[in-house]
Amino acid sequence: MTPFSNSPSDVLRWLLIGAGVGTDPSLTQDWPMYVANDPEEPFGSTAPDDCITILDTAGEEEIRSQPDNEVFHREGVQILVRAATHPIGYAKAATVRQAIIAVINASVLVGTASYFVPNCMKIGQVLPLGRDRPNSARSRFSINCQLVAIQGT
Q1: CB neighbours of residue 40 within 10 Å
Q2: In this predicted model, what pLDDT tens digit does every residue of 47-63 receive, in sequence order?
Q3: In a domain, 122, yes or no
């Protein structure tokens, strides 16, 4: 299987932005979606309370095709939801989870690369992680899943 031009987390991010679950942070701060890192908080400013960050995690081999013995892989991703309050964060994480469940035979463009995503698998429950950091009112939640994707030509 050919490696992706983009990370699996970026593929899922653009699928979820297309589904209206989050937004491109360069356009708006209404539930911005980031890849790999939470937004920075430079001195004298604050990052948005309500945001979504997607991380790449370990995946697993699924099957080998016959007769060419190509290995198919499910890419691991973790979605982190941060919110100003626990109720807001839990509700948003539940919405994100439902959007991941709804990914069936989806196509997405990430930069100049196209991807076909038949589905997401092993979708975990919403997991409350507690406060964003000590003395913070922000709450964090996690959802783990595996992404099945094929990069177009």
Answers
A1: 7
A2: 788 999 999 998 877 66
A3: yes
Number of compact structural domains in the chain:
1
pTM given for the model: 0.86
Residue 1 pLDDT level (bands cut at 50, 70, 90): very low
Residue of 149, 152, 91, 80 lying closest to 121 (CA atoms): 149
Give the number of other CB atoms < 10 A from CB of residue 107.
11
CATH number at residue 82: 3.30.2000.30
- Amino acid identity, position 114: S
| In-domain check, residue 51 | yes
Question: Tokens in use for 123?
Answer: 């979708």
| Concatenated DSSP letters of 95-133 | HHHHHHHT-EEEEEEETTEEEEEEEEESPPPPEEEEESS
Q: How far apart are CA 41 and CA 65, in angstroms?
A: 47
